[in-house]
Amino acid sequence: MRGIVGPGVVVGAELDPHHHLSAAMLRHADLLIAFKEYPHTDILERAFELVDLCAAQVAGRVRPQAAAVDCEMIAMLHTTREPMRGYVDRLQALEGRDGVLSISVTHGFPWGDVADMGTRLLVYTDANADPGGARGQALARQLADELIGLREQLSPPTPGIDEVLDQALALAPGPVVIADGADNPGGGAAGDSTFLLRRMVERGIQGAALGPLWDPMAVRIAFDAGLGARLPLRLGGKISPLSGAPLDADATVRGLRRNMTMTGLAGTPMGLGDCAWVDVQGIAVVLISVRHQAMGTDLFTGLGCTLEDKGVIVVKSSQHFHAAFAPLARQVLYAAAPGSVTSDLRSLPYRKVQRPKWPL
User: What is the pTM of this model?
Assistant: First the structure.
């Protein structure tokens, strides 16, 4: 973009915090502002902030200068709980004071094997109030050190499949929401793994729900069979060994909907294609044709499947489900199931990432 518009035009960008922050990005942009919340519920607020600061720069009221510090770590920074909730609140309290224009945390994207992958702190100060940028650099270093000090506390507990199911059942009556983040399409997974579903069936867990399971073939078969049909159906497990084996089960078609949408981040609709709700031994499974992670509860309710009466709800998502599902949950748990987006980062064969990089 800088190559197109030249040096005299203000260039700013709003970023998902799961980006890779590079020196080239900092060099060519006047302002980079990342969403602060995870799940990303503040997209609109950060957009207004970016436009206001870019306009102020055009008008000559501010001269943004960047200071970035590499935390030399990989972290999952859930702002729905401590200690990250309080940390982000402190960042926002610093903005607009003492020449501080903006503070962003680059969470990084742990499953991207590139040199710039990792967590970073980015502080913009006004050069009019901070000539040379020493104050901004010191603040970025201080905030990075604080985050490094919190790193052991940032990731939620991730018990294995049977342990997380035991915990959910012990919390009855539910609903208890279990995140299957390892099969999160938002991180690049197929969204068709059967590990949790198979174990729920084997253990005879009923009054439960799971979704979305990406299986266009099963959706088409369900539509052909029609509402109320009971038939043997092969579900999931189609893309790779990290999808698990297909689950063969007797299924009853409970709901069908063409071109269904789900409420996504900041209320934006997300197309799921043709969708089917099938009952598998007392488990409501939502099958989708267009691959997405779970975000809005209308993923289930749009097919007529209620959630308040479910003891266990398994969602294929890492954290974006939280904004919509947590309000109805007795508790939210995070499972360590097999999958492409595994939380066991030490098991991944990184080749390009710069080291040192905790916890590698």
Answer: 0.93
